[in-house]
Structure formats: C-alpha cells, structure tokens
Amino acid sequence: MLRRQIVAGTMVAILLSSIPASLAAQQGNVTLAGTGKKEAKKPYADYSARARDVQQGQVSGTTPLDAEGTFSLSGLSASKYLVELVDPKGKVVCTEGPFDMTKAATKNDVVIDCNKVPSAWYVLAAAAAAGITSGVAAGDSTAGQSAPAATAASVDGGPASAAR
C-alpha cells in the first residue's frame, strides 16, 4: 500500500512539473520587460512602450518608461507581440520583435534598438529570394506573369484558336 502511495505521489509530481509555461501564459500572466533608453531621449518618462498583438493587430498593453528608461508590460495573454517605443506625440519611434509569448510567460531582456535590422526583414528577404529562385529553378519563364484570359472564341474553336 505504501508503495502505491509513493508511486502515485511521484506520478502527480511529474505531471505537475511537466505543465508548460504556456498554460500560465494563457491566463493573462505574460510579461514583456526591458529597456528603451537607446532610442528614447530624456526625460524617459515622456516615452512609452506598448505591446501590439501581431495576430490581431491591436495594442494589448501600454506603459510609460521609468526614469531609467525601462518598462514592464504585464497581464498580457499568450500571443506573439511587437514592442513599440512611442514618443510624446504618439508616434512610433521603432519596434522590436516579434516575441512568441505562447511558449514562455516572461521575457525580461527586450532592448528596443532602431539601428538593428529586425528579424522580420530577414524572413521577408528569404521569402523574396525563394520566390525569385523558384521561377528560375523550375525553368518557367512565365513565373510571376498572369495567364491570358480565355475568350469565348478561343474556347469553342472559333477564329482565335484557329490562328494558333
């Protein structure tokens, strides 16, 4: 009997420890934190950081920078976010991310830096290169061109198809 209780207790402990952080993130416990002082000008408190849900396109949270230029956006739901630095006039200075917060509940090392190329640009460049290359690799000289529209005459054997 004691052996069963030990085995059962061990199983419960293993199951509880294997609950992913994403479960906590789904409950609105996601936090994005970091600094915007590389891009903001003093006084830092005039600037704010906001989290934009990439999938919905909506702002999910906003907070002013503190006196040291740091921020913490908490209470977010599990999603993918861009962090935007906003100036006193409400204009977005630059963005950082995207951050996939479906796999982790906390990211404390966000550094908003306008001078580095966002990873999204690399993905876009790779996709563009793949699109160009696929037309060449397939030997299709019409890649990217639209097909001519079919006319009634060319479909039913009229003069347009006879000319071919």
Percent helix: 25-40%
**Low-pLDDT residue intervals, each spanning 5 or more residues:** 7-25, 134-141, 143-158, 160-164
DSSP summary: helix tally: 5
**Gyration radius from CA atoms, angstroms:** 27 Å
Major sheet: arrangement of strands: 3-2-5-6
- Secondary structure: number of strands: 7
Amount of beta strand: 25-35%
CATH superfamily descriptor of the domain at 19-120: Carboxypeptidase-like, regulatory domain
Structural class: alpha+beta
Which fold does the CATH topology of the domain at 19-120 refer to? Immunoglobulin-like
Oligomer: single chain
**What is the correct CATH architecture of the domain at 19-120?**
Sandwich
Shape: globular
Describe this structure in words.
- The chain has 164 residues and is an alpha+beta fold.
- The protein has a domain at 19-120: Carboxypeptidase-like, regulatory domain (Immunoglobulin-like), CATH 2.60.40.
- It has 5 helices and 7 strands.
- The longest helix is centred in the last third of the chain and has 19 residues, at 119-137.
- Mean pLDDT is 74; it is low at 7-25, 134-141, 143-158 and 160-164.
